[in-house]
Write a structure and sequence with these properties.
- This protein is α+β, with helices and mostly antiparallel strands.
- The chain folds into 3 domains: 147 residues, no CATH class; 69 residues, Helix Hairpins, CATH 1.10.287; 148 residues, Heat Shock Protein 90 (2-Layer Sandwich), CATH 3.30.565.
- It has 12 helices and 10 strands.
- Helix 2 packs antiparallel against helix 3, helix 3 runs antiparallel to helix 4 and helix 4 runs antiparallel to helix 5.
Length: 437
């Protein structure tokens, strides 16, 4: 069931979850700028006696103050700005500074150097496109201020600098804008890449440690559950001999026996050493057959599971061996969908010369926002407050599938949707792998 549409938020394009710049930091810097501009205008006009259009200047400064108040009220203080939001705010600040410079002498004003500040901030935190756009905007403002400006405030006669000097100031500011944007962006981008690489490495190591811990937990569970499961199997078989075949409980007893046998097979698989597992590396199965085998154990959970094949005409169906990683990974995703679906789970298969894709879609309520933001992490359960579930299924599935080169994307589209995508060459590469000696 789809959630109700929220009231449109005019600040939504500004706010992004993965931004690098905190709104609180930018608002603080802008308040400092407002205070500095206000003090400078008042001191120059009343302290030094230079005649300024004080009312117009303070009105321009008030625009920044009002925008700060609006963002403080309409947006969370911990919101982070993405490329678009930060570029818009820095562009606004650049235009506001350009208006102040226009009122106070243009490029002849010593404070014209401050127009480089937004370019520097942009080059430090933004991507190449927004940085380039703000650099071009700075150059346009510098050019306009060279020709269109109010007289420079001065005592006595009006001061007008010679054209060669004004041309030199224009050239210096334009060259400085381009140089600062290029140099600082290159250095910052290298630092960002290093930071992202370290974060990805740390996340990979954490996942590996969590999976290793789960491996030990699985082995201990297989050992501890063996005895009670054997007792259940014995009691179930005794009941099958005592209950007549026409009894209404006969079907339940048969189901109990089949499920205990399945539990025994699962525990046997958990106890098996990975290097002794039978991956049948020389037996190829078509992609549709692999998916069918992965979803077979979950057809009777309660929802109908439909397999819909969508393939590019003329492209042969990919083949790969039936590995435990594929079966358990895809199986966990299908099981999760079948348990939460109302009536149907649809599996959409697609392949072409470049990719192999499996889409698992159910018609349930979908993922809640907190769960969707944390899917793939261990001990995150999609079952809300149900304490009987540890929240490991999606984590295990994602870890197993990503080890085989897959990429998983979780979304809500009239229910929950999980897209599993492999590069075709990586999907089929394991066909030619030889078993470890």
């Amino acid at each position: 069931m789809n959630e109700k549409q929220a009231t449109p938020d005019p600040t939504a394009p500004i706010r992004q979850l993965e931004g690098r710049l905190g709104l609180r930091t930018l608002i603080l810097i802008r308040w400092i700028a407002v205070a500095g501009q206000t003090v400078t205008i008042l001191v120059v006009h009343f302290g030094f006696g230079f005649i300024l259009p004080v009312a117009a200047c303070l009105f321009v400064v008030a625009l920044t103050a009002l925008s700060n108040l609006m963002f403080s009220v309409r947006m969370p203080v911990r919101a982070r700005l993405g490329n678009v939001g930060a570029a818009l705010l820095l562009g606004f600040d650049m235009l506001q500074l350009g208006m102040l410079l226009y009122l106070t002498g243009g490029l002849e004003n010593p404070f014209a150097l401050l127009i480089l500040a937004p370019v520097t901030v942009a080059a430090t935190i933004l991507a190449r496109g927004p940085t380039l756009a703000l650099t071009v905007l700075a150059m346009v403002l510098i050019t306009l201020l060279a020709f269109f400006r109010a007289p420079l405030p001065w005592t006595g006669e009006t001061v007008s600098l010679p054209f060669p000097y004004a041309l030199g100031v224009w050239t210096a500011l334009c060259v400085a804008s381009a140089f600062i944007a290029t140099y600082i962006w290159s250095v910052a981008d290298e630092a960002r890449r290093m930071s992202d690489a370290l974060a990805a490495t740390e996340a990979s190591l954490n996942r590996a440690r969590n999976l290793s811990a789960l491996g030990g937990l699985a082995a201990a569970a297989a050992h501890e559950l063996g005895s009670p499961l054997a007792t259940i199997a014995v009691v179930a078989k005794e009941l099958s001999r005592e209950v007549p075949e026409d009894s209404p409980f006969a079907e339940d007893v048969a189901l109990l026996i089949s499920q205990s046998d399945r539990c025994r097979d699962i525990l046997a698989g958990l106890s098996q050493r990975p290097d002794m597992a039978d991956h049948r590396p020389l037996e190829r199965l078509k992609f549709s057959a692999l998916v069918a085998q992965a979803c077979d154990p979950y057809r009777d959970i309660g929802s109908a599971v439909d397999i819909v094949v969508d393939a590019v005409s003329g492209s042969p169906e990919p083949e790969a061996p039936e590995t435990h990683e594929f079966v358990h990974g895809v199986g966990n995703i299908i099981q999760n969908a079948a348990q939460f679906a109302r009536e149907q789970v649809a599996l959409e298969l697609y392949w072409d010369a470049e990719i192999v894709r499996l889409t698992v879609r159910d018609d349930g309520q979908g993922f809640t926002a907190p769960v969707l933001a944390s899917l793939g992490e261990p001990y995150i359960s999609t079952r809300g407050g149900d304490q009987g579930h540890m929240g490991l299924g999606v984590f295990i599935a994602q870890t197993l599938l990503e080890a085989g080169g897959a990429e998983l994307v979780f979304a809500n589209r009239e229910g929950a949707e999980v897209v599993i995508r492999w590069p075709r060459d990586m999907f089929e590469r394991s066909v030619n792998r030889q078993p470890a000696v």
